[in-house]
Amino acid sequence: MNEPEILRYTAFTAIPSGGNPAGVVLDARGLDAARMQAIAADVGYSETAFLVPRTGNEYDVRYYSPEKEITFCGHATIAAAVALAERTHPGTIRLHTRAGEVGVETHREGTRTTATLTSVEPHVEAVSDEALGGALGALRWSPEDLDPALPPRIGFAGARHLILAARTRERLSALDYDYAALKELMLALDLTTVALVWREAPTLFHARNPFPPGGVVEDPATGASAAAFGAYLRELGLVATPATVTIHQGVDMGRPSLLTVDIGEHGGIRVTGQAVPVE
User: Fold this and answer.
1) pLDDT score recorded for residue 2
2) Domain map of the chain by residue range?
3) Separation between Cα atoms, residue 243 and residue 256, nearest integer Å
4) Cα(163)–Cα(228) distance, integer angstroms
5) Cα-atom radius of gyration of the chain, to the nearest Å?
6) Are strands 204-211 and 243-249 parallel, antiparallel or unpaired?
7) 195 Cβ partners below 8 Å, 6+ apart?
8) Which ranges in 67-124 belong to alpha helices (H)?
9) Band of the pLDDT at 1, cuts 50, 70, 90?
10) Distance CA 217, CA 7 (A)
11) Residue 84 pLDDT exceeds 90
């Protein structure tokens, strides 16, 4: 079997030491699920994207973490779109994911390539008291640690994320959770990450995202979660649409990331970021 070319890009950053690294295979034809899972485990990043060309500007794509397949991954989408644009030309591509069709636009200014994904139709749902209690217990948070202005919800924009807002930046910074307990809860609830956020200003947020279902303690940048969070803000009327929201993530990990979220009055959520090669 021919070995596929595996690219390594880091997304939502302009520097190789920032952002969230992703593996990218631009031509995954001939790879079965077991082989893709093995490659993702070997690469070791939170996700690796595997693209299979259709015709024109359309691709099938699958995302694998080191431990399992993920329905949709935002940072690996940004990384793959930038990698593709740098080898062909900027423009619009259509990705057929397990969550649905995702459009991605790429733009180049000098040496800088930026990608914007538009999520599948999002939705937001309530969190049961039992699930919330389990999450808080695993995180070692108390109910008083939550910001009452940003109530807990589960947001979906390609994958499910539990959204919990910290009352203070200090609470967000002090992340020390029970990995096994949170992983068990998240697998039971079909959650991809827990989106922990703190609101600095009306459209400026800081985020941290535990990702134990994928075998990852924390994501430095989570585009799918950012899209789900944009849907959450719209659904709960926490921003006036249309709105542009900025999310800083990865700072506490030493991998600063910048995610720009555009929230329209309806439809998919747009998430923008740069990506650069790791090597």
Assistant:
1) 74
2) 7-118, 123-269
3) 23
4) 9
5) 18
6) parallel
7) 155, 161, 162, 163, 164, 207, 209, 222, 225, 228, 229
8) 74-87
9) low
10) 23
11) yes
Asked if domains 7-118 and 123-269 share a fold, the reply is yes
**CATH code for the structural domain at 7-118:** 3.10.310.10
Q: Among 219, 196, 227, 270, which residue's Cα sits nearest to residue 123? A: 227
Question: Are the C-beta atoms of 176 and 210 separated by less than 8 Å?
Answer: no
**CB-CB contact of 146 with 152 (8 Å):** yes
Bridge partner residues of 146 (DSSP): 166
| Mean of all residue pLDDT scores within the chain | 97
Cβ neighbours of residue 188 closer than 8 Å, sequence gap 6 or more: none
What is the C-alpha to C-alpha distance for residues 43 and 37, in angstroms, rounded to an integer?
Answer: 10
> Tokens 């295979």 appear where?
25
- Give residue 65's pLDDT band: very low, low, confident or very high (50, 70, 90): very high
What pTM, to 2 d.p., does this model score? 0.97
Per residue in 146-200, pLDDT (tens digit) is: 999 999 999 999 999 999 999 999 999 999 999 999 999 999 999 999 999 999 9
Three-class DSSP category at 179: helix
CATH class of 123-269: alpha beta
Paired tokens of 35: 């082989």
Cα separation, 235 vs 172, whole angstroms = 23
Q: Cis peptide before 242, with omega less than 30 degrees from 0?
A: yes
The tokens for 141 are 């948070």
